[in-house]
Amino acid sequence: MKKILQADQLKLKRSSLLIIVLLVPLLILAYELVNFTYRAEFVEKQAEMFGAGSMWMFLLYDNSLLFGLGCPLAVTLAASVIANIEHQANGWKQTLSMPISRGKIYLSKFIWLTISLFLSTTIFLIGMVLLGKLLGFEGNIPLVLLMGDCYGMLITVLPMMAFQFWLSMTIKNQAFSILIGSISAIMGLFLAAAQTTRWFPLAYPIQSSTVILQYEGIGYNPDFSAYLVINLILGIILIFIGSRHFAKRNVQ
Amino acid sequence: MNEQILMTNDLTKKYMKHTSVDGINLRIERGQIYGFLGPNGAGKTTTIRMLLGLIKPTQGTIKIFGQSLKKNRLQILQRIGSLVESPTYYGNLTGRENLEAVRRLRDLPEKRVNEVLEIVRLTKVANRLTKEYSLGMKQRLGIAVAMLSNPDLLILDEPTNGLDPSGIQEIRELIKELPKAGMSVLVSSHMLSEIDQMATQVGIINNGKMIFQDSIERLRQKRKPLLKVGVSDGMKANEILKERKLKANLQGDFLWLSQTEPAFVSEINSILVHAGVSVYRLEEVTKTLEDIFLELTGTEGSL
Ligand SMILES: Nc1ncnc2c1ncn2[C@@H]1O[C@H](COP(=O)(O)OP(=O)(O)O)[C@@H](O)[C@H]1O
Ligand SMILES: [Mg+2]
Fold first, then answer.
1. Predicted pLDDT at B296
2. A129 to A132, A140, A142, B3: CA distances (angstroms)
3. CATH assignment of B226-286, among 3.30.450, 2.60.40, 3.30.70, 3.40.50
4. How many CB pairs under 8 A join A and B?
5. For residue range A60-103, what is the model confidence (pLDDT) as tens digits?
6. DSSP labels for B166-209?
C-alpha cells in the first residue's frame, strides 16, 4: 500500500491540488481578517450582543458558516483533481492492468483526498490561531474548540468526500461532479436552516461547529457529537460501497 | 517449446445487441510473436481489454500461464506488460517520472527505469514533460511502461500507431528480439505488412470473428503465384482445359491456373492455340498478402 501511495503522490506533482488545498482556508481567513479589522466596532458589538465569552468564541461562531460551505467545495474540487489525473492521462487502462487490487488503487487515491483536506483544515487551524494572536484576542487560546471545529469538519464532510470521490472517479466529465458538489454544498445550507431537515447528513458540515448561537447566546453545540458519529459511520459505508462498485466496473 | 501460455475459449463480448468479439479461440505458445491482425473496428482492442481483465467477457473463458484469468487475475497480471490503444501519459510529469510512477506501483528495481528509457531511445528527452512529447514519443513511452517489469507476456495494441517509418522499423526490430529472452508477444495491427515482418504466428479477426489462425508460413503459402491467361473465348477455353483434366478458374475474360512452370505455360498455350482459341496474354501473378487478406475478410478496401 505504501508503494501505491508513493506512486499516487508522484502523479499529483505539478497538479493544481495544492492551490485548492490552500484556497478555501486562505479565503476565509482573509475575510475574517478584514472583518475583524475594518469592521472591528461592529464585530465587537455583535459579539457582546450574542454573549460570546471571548473574541475567540466569536471567531469560531462567525466562520462556521463560511467554512461549512467552503469545505464541501474544497472536497468537490480536490476529489475532481485527484480523479482527473487518471482520466486526463488515459490512465485507467494502464493503472488497472497492474497486478494491484482495484480496491487498493481506489483507497490510495481516497487517502490522498483525505490528506489534502487534513492539510487544508490544519492550515485553517494555524491560520485562526495566528489571526487571534495578531489581533490581540484576550484569554487563552481555546485550542480544543479550534481543533474540534477543524478536524470535526473533516469527519462531518466524510460522506460527501466518499460520494464526490466516487462520482469523479467513475464519471470522466468533471463538470458533472463539480456541479453536483456545488449543488450539494448549497443544499446543505438550506437543509440546515429548517428544524427537521437539519438532521440530514448533508446539512451537517454547515452545522459542524463546536459553538453555536442559542437563546442564551453563543455556547457549545450539543448535537456536534451526534453529527460526528453519524457521518463517520455513513462515510465509511459510502467509501466501502464506492470501492466495491469501482472494482467491478468495466474499464474503457 | 509448445507450452501454451494464452488460450481463450469461445471468447465473446457483446455491447447491447452489437457483438464486438464473437467466439474467439486464441492460442499463443511460449516464444511466439503472435500478430493479431484486423481492420479498424474488428474487435482487437476489445479482445485485448478482456485479456487484461479490464472488461468482463459476455461469454467464454481466458487462460493465461495455465491459470484462469477470472480466478487469478493479479498473479497473471504480475507477468504481463501491456499497451492498450492510445498511449497513457501523465502530462504533468516528465517521461522519467511517468516510468517512476509505474515502477513504484509494481515495486520494481530503480535501475529498470533507465534501462527501458534506453531501449525505446527516450533517454535524451526523459526529463521533459510528457505533454510536450510527440505522438511517437508517447507511444514509445507506452512501450517502455509495458516492458518495465520484464514481463513473460507482452501485449501491445497497435504499438506502431503514430510512429514514423524509422520508428516503426525500430519497434519492429525490438519486438523481434524479445523471444530470445523467453518473452512471448501479442501484437495487434491493422497493417498486414507490419505483421508480416515480425510475427511468427498470425490470427486474423474481422467483424469480431477469427477467420484465420496459423503460422505466418501458412499464410504466405496462400501467396503462391498463379497463371493468368487472357483468351478470346473464355468459356470455350475453359471447356477445352476441362476435357484435359486441367483445373482452371474462369473470372471475367481471364482463366486462372495454379501452376506457373515454363513447360506448363507453353503447354497450355499450345493446347489453346491448336483448339482455335487465340491467346493474347500469359502472365504470372503473385497475390500480395493484402489480396489474401481481402479474400479472407471479403471487405475490399476497408483496411
Ligand atoms: N464500450 C463500447 N460500447 C459499445 N461498442 C463498443 C465499445 N467498445 C468497442 N465497441 C465496438 O466494438 C467494435 C470493436 O472495437 P475495437 O475492439 O476497438 O476494434 P479494433 O481495436 O479492432 O479497431 C467496434 O465496432 C466498436 O464500435
Ligand atoms: Mg483498436
1. 74
2. 5, 11, 9, 69
3. 3.30.70
4. 80
5. 888 888 999 999 999 999 999 999 999 999 999 999 999 999 99
6. HHHHHHHHHHHHGGGGT-EEEEEES-HHHHHHH-SEEEEEETTE
Q: Is residue B221 very low, low, confident or very high in pLDDT (cuts 50, 70, 90)?
A: confident
Pocket of ligand 1 (CB under 6 A): A 252; B 15, 18, 20, 38, 40-46
Convert A192-230 into a string of H (helix), E (strand) and C (coil).
HHCCCHHHCHHHHHHHCCCEEEECCEEEECCCHHHHHHH
Domain boundaries, chain A: 2-246
Higher pLDDT, A162 or A141: A162
Task: Judge whether A108 is closer than 8 Å to chain B, CB to CB.
Answer: no
- Residues contacting residue A235 through CB under 8 Å, at least 6 positions apart: A155, A158, A159, A161, A162
Q: What is the pLDDT of residues B236-269, one digit of tens each?
A: 888 888 888 888 888 887 888 888 888 988 988 8
Report ipTM for this prediction: 0.91
Confidence class of residue A126 from pLDDT cuts 50, 70 and 90? very high
Q: Which residues of chain B form CATH 3.40.50.300?
A: 4-221
Local structure of residue B131 (DSSP, 8 states): G
3-class secondary structure per residue, chain A: CHHHHHHHHHHCCCCCHHHHHHHHHHHHHHHHHHHHHHCHHHHHHHHHHCCCCCHHHHHHHHHHHHHHHHHHHHHHHHHHHHHHHHHHHCCHHHHCCCCCCHHHHHHHHHHHHHHHHHHHHHHHHHHHHHHHHHCCCCCCCCHHHHHHHHHHHHHHCHHHHHHHHHHHHHCCCHHHHHHHHHHHHHHHHHHHHCCCHHHCHHHHHHHCCCEEEECCEEEECCCHHHHHHHHHHHHHHHHHHHHHHHHHCCCC
Does residue A247 sit at the B interface (CB-CB below 8 Å)? Answer: no
Whether A2 and chain B come into contact, CB under 8 Å, resolves to no
Q: Compute the distance between CA of residue B268 and CA of residue B272 in angstroms, rounded to an integer.
A: 6
Cβ(B146)–Cβ(B123) under 8 Å?
Answer: no
Alpha-carbon radius of gyration of chain B: 24
CATH 3.30.70 region(s) of chain B?
A: 226-286
Cell numbers placing B224: 503462391
Beta-carbon separation of B93 and A97 below 8 A: no
Q: What is the dihedral of CA B162, B168, B170, B171, to 10 degrees?
A: 70
3-state DSSP call for residue B229?
Answer: strand
Tell me the CATH class for B4-221.
alpha beta
Q: Which of residues 66-85 of A touch B (CB under 8 A)?
A: 85
- Say how many C-beta atoms besides its own lie within 10 A of residue A232's C-beta: 15
